[in-house]
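Exercise 7. Given the encoded structure of a 237-residue chain, write a plausible sequence.
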């Protein structure tokens, strides 16, 4: 059975709920390894806007996990006490189920995703993760907001968000696209901000560690901003 990856997003409202979510970035670390069948996992905060952003969003948090297969992933997301507690505290939650199709690089010294090696004609998700060298953080953040702004304005993107483990230094972008061609056109446009930033990263050696992964989107549960973001793809079609 191919590996399943889940990213669960939670939106909190009010001082008490936001304080609880922030505290769980530390407290939940003891509970996560005890969840049956869980593999690699990360607790993440989020940034304002789309893509890499330096300004924290205190209302939105995310949990990324890997599982042996899709059935186990759905069962654990639905029935495990930790995820249930997050959903009770949140005003809105959404989990997207993914199957890795390609992955290159490391995350905290590990290779967390096991690509299935299969192509898909359906929607795809892209995840980019980097550890930024502290001494070049100012240069990095001077370049990245332009990419974030363009991603946000691209009408083909069904969902986009910037998350991370540590503000400013550990950052993740996650986006969902209707198909591989649309995703590639954005990433590979020679004069586009994405290509320009990649060249700057290579020339400047900004990252201590980086990971690039692609996934087939296999399903979701919950809502974000009132509906499933995957509905955006259906509406466009």
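Solution.
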């Amino acid at each position: 059975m191919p590996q399943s990856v889940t990213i669960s997003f939670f939106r909190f409202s009010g001082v008490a709920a936001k304080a609880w979510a922030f505290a769980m970035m530390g407290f939940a670390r003891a509970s996560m390894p005890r969840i049956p069948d869980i593999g690699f996992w990360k607790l993440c905060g989020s940034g304002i806007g789309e893509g890499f952003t330096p300004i924290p969003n205190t209302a939105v948090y995310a949990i990324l996990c890997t599982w042996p297969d899709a059935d186990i992933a759905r069962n654990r997301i639905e029935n495990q006490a930790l995820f249930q507690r997050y959903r009770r505290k949140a005003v809105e939650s959404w989990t997207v189920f993914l199957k890795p199709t390609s992955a290159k690089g490391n995350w905290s010294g590990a290779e967390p995703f096991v690509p299935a090696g299969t192509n898909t004609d359906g929607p795809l998700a892209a995840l980019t993760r980097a550890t930024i060298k502290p001494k070049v953080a100012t240069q990095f953040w001077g370049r990245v907001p332009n990419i974030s702004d363009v991603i946000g304005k691209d009408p083909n993107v069904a969902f986009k968000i910037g998350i991370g483990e540590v503000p400013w230094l550990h950052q993740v972008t996650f986006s969902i696209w209707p198909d591989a061609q649309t995703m590639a056109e954005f990433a590979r446009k020679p004069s586009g901000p994405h290509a320009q930033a990649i060249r700057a990263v290579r020339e400047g050696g900004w990252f201590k560690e980086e990971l690039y992964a692609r996934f087939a989107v296999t399903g979701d549960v919950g809502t974000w901003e009132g509906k499933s973001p995957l509905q955006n793809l259906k509406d466009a079609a």
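Remark. The longest strand covers residues 207-222. Students should compare their own answers with the one above.
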